[in-house]
Amino acid sequence: MLTVKKVTSSPLLRISLLLSAILLATANFADDSQQPLQLAALTEGFNAEQTYMQSCFACHSTGAAGAPKVGEGNAAEWAPRMEKGLDAVVNNAINGLNTMPPKGLCFNCTDEDLRAIVQYMLDSST
Ligand code: HEC
Fold it and tell me: Which fold has domain 36-124?
């Protein structure tokens, strides 16, 4: 009992639970929207910066939950991650990584959209 109490009072776990709730809510929404699957191309009218602002900025501008920060002066946040190669980093954005949710919660994004956003994030982090 003591252990359970300890764990649930951990701020990190509380954030994880909150993120899971958000993820579930958004996933249900995505199911209802019946968007056609487009995995190999950029979505028409896609804008990497705009989509970044909508889906990724909340975590990646502040470093919430340990997210690598994006923007000037943040190159060092990305250098160690890029050691495994761009493809691996993009795949982690697509599939999720620890508290990084799959597709960064952009469920309309194709794999190519996500690759373009990751490229935008890297280009912005100088
Ligand atoms: C709910 C918060 C959250 C949102 C929203 C989010 N991220 Fe992340 N992201 C994280 C966290 C936390 C990490 C660090 C995960 C780790 O290394 O354990 C991360 C890591 C990453 C990485 C590095 C992966 C690697 O291999 O090191 C990329 C790329 C990334 N996110 C892209 C995105 C993109 C693109 C979006 C928007 C479409 C997005 N993220 C939205 C929290 C978030």
Answer: Cytochrome Bc1 Complex; Chain D, domain 2 (1.10.760)
